[in-house]
Amino acid sequence: QVQLVESGGGLVQPGGxxxxxxxxxxxxxxxxxxxxxxxxxxxxxxxxxISSSGSTNYADSVKGRFTISRDNxxxxxxxxxxxxxxxxxxxxxxxxxxxxxxxxxQGTQVTVSS
Length: 114
Hints:
Oligomer: single chain
Mean pLDDT: 95
């Protein structure tokens, strides 16, 4: 089992920045990729960014604004979000892909509003 705990969400004005953090524990040796998803009200959960074997991929809507990074020594993954827009408002979920299947954090709310 893998446990994921997110932190760092909150309310921010358009154009502002937030940094999300996700701490992984448990069977972390089985993890081969970690990433962030988000789900806005009335919409499906969507991939925001993913990091695997040194490569990263981003949703087109966040390219150039968001950056995913990992600290393997601390079993952490981060999402730096800059130039935030109201349409970035969603619950953000940390995700770990492992040999035993995907794992999810509880989610953290990000609200972009003036």
